[in-house]
Amino acid sequence: MNSAPHGNPGQENLEPAVGIARCQGSLLVRAAQVVECKGNRVIVEVMGQEGCARCEQGGGCGAGLFIRSQRWHLEVVAPKPLAIGEVVSLALPRKTLSLLAATVYALPLVFALIIAGVGQGLFEAPWMAPVGFFVGLLGSILGLHYFLKEQRERFRPRLVF
After folding, report:
1. Which residue, of 63, 68, 101, 132, is most buried by count of CB atoms within 10 Å of its CB?
2. Which of 161, 10, 142 is nearest to 87 (CA)?
3. In this model, does residue 157 exceed pLDDT 60?
4. What pLDDT, on a 0 to 100 scale, did the predictor assign at position 54?
5. Where is the chain membrane-spanning (predicted)?
6. Please, what's the b/e burial string for 99-126 (b: 16 or more CB within 10 A of its CB; e: otherwise)?
7. Would you give the DSSP letter of residue 11?
8. Which sequence spans correspond to the domains of the chain?
């Protein structure tokens, strides 16, 4: 299922098997297969990863709980024409993934804690901190939803050759 190596004949094949994630310098790379072409964009199918044999038997480290086992489709820009069935590599810079994780997970929690603290400081009611926390959490999630709509391309994986 792996396509032939690109580039020089002596160069090693950098494409992983479909569904396998790996690191390549400062990039996180994952293989996918082209399933549809739409002009200069293609839809690729990313295979889910399998856990180790121990995880499948329930005796592993538990990392298998966090592995996506189903396939999903992703639309990406294709800088050159690709054929349906071709195996390609998707890459996302580690910095981008770290920034996205911090933005999506840490920022709402920090904002919610600040709102809860301010609410508790301004009002003496014992229920103000939990209400402030959940209002801050929901408000920051909605705000991020609209902010990230405009930033979506920044966090989208790119094809690498």
Report:
1. 132
2. 161
3. yes
4. 62
5. 99-121, 127-148
6. eeeeeeeeebeebbeebbeebbeeeeee
7. S
8. 21-160
First to last CA, the chain: 17
The chain-wide mean pLDDT, for the chain, equals 76
The model's pTM: 0.56
Is the confidence at residue 8, as pLDDT, over 80? Answer: no
What is the DSSP secondary structure assignment for residue 140, as one 8-state letter?
H
Residue 79 C-alpha from the chain's centroid? 21
pLDDT at 88: 87
DSSP at 58: T
Show the beta-strand stretches assigned E in 8-160: 21-24, 27-38, 41-46, 72-77, 87-93, 158-160
pLDDT class of 160 with cuts at 50, 70, 90: confident
- Angle at 106 (CA atoms; ends 102, 108), nearest 5 degrees: 120
Per-residue pLDDT averaged across 8-20, rounded? 43
Please say whether the beta carbons of 28 and 66 come within 8 A.
no
